[in-house]
Design a protein that fits this description.
alpha+beta; SMI1/KNR4-like; seven-stranded antiparallel sheet; two-stranded antiparallel sheet; 6 helices
């Protein structure tokens, strides 16, 4: 039996995860426009599909950003939006990268030059890992933690 992203989200939903409602087409188009306005590369197709499933999520230190900032009232936790995060932190990373999420000491990025997803060390910007698809990125990161028990 092969594991899917739906299986992973099923597992993290059993715990204390923040999974944002799916993005609308309008929210995704606005995000694309706003990324262009700040000089960032556009969202890759696979990430747009992900946003239509979950418009961002946070779980056990993993964060993947959505089209708008989400603030949990009960805890005060803030999950930043992809445009705001890239505007604030983008100058610390090469301009052909779009930061999609973080975990611990890693950035998860779309590398527009290589046309692939990568994890980079936050301090050195050196490659930690490369992924052929967004699904591979989720499976090789969040999936390893979610399905480890």
């Amino acid at each position: 039996m092969s594991v899917t992203i739906a299986d992973i989200f099923g597992e993290i939903l059993k715990s204390d995860a923040l999974i944002v409602e799916p993005a609308t087409n309008f929210e995704i188009k606005r995000c694309q426009r706003d990324l262009g306005d700040i000089g960032c590369v556009h969202l890759p197709k696979e990430y747009k599909k992900f946003l239509k499933i979950a418009n961002g999520f946070a779980w056990n230190g993993f964060e993947f950003y959505g089209t708008y900032e989400v603030r949990e009232k009960s805890s005060g936790y803030v999950l930043r939006d992809i445009v705001g995060y890239n505007e604030r932190f983008g100058e610390r990373v090469d301009d052909h990268f779009l930061i999609l999420g973080t975990f611990d000491e890693d950035y998860y990025v779309w590398d527009n030059e290589r046309k692939q997803y990568r994890s980079l060390d936050r301090l050195t910007r050196m490659d930690v890992d490369e992924f052929e698809s967004f699904e591979d990125l989720i499976m090789g990161t969040v999936g390893l933690y979610a399905l480890s028990d």
